[in-house]
Amino acid sequence: MSDTYSGEFYCVKCKEKRQAEGKVVETNGRRMAKGTCPVCGTNLNRILGKA
Question: Which residue intervals define the domain DUF5679 in the entry (predicted)?
Fold first, then answer.
């Protein structure tokens, strides 16, 4: 299961919402999308709902 998520992430370094693409990973029963900020290159995380 290697899904991709495309949508809004919150960049902590820029303090703004960014449109990015990332891989969906499951950690401790929680689905998370992990990507990189297109502006500053920081790692982005977004917790997704159970589906």
Answer: 10-47
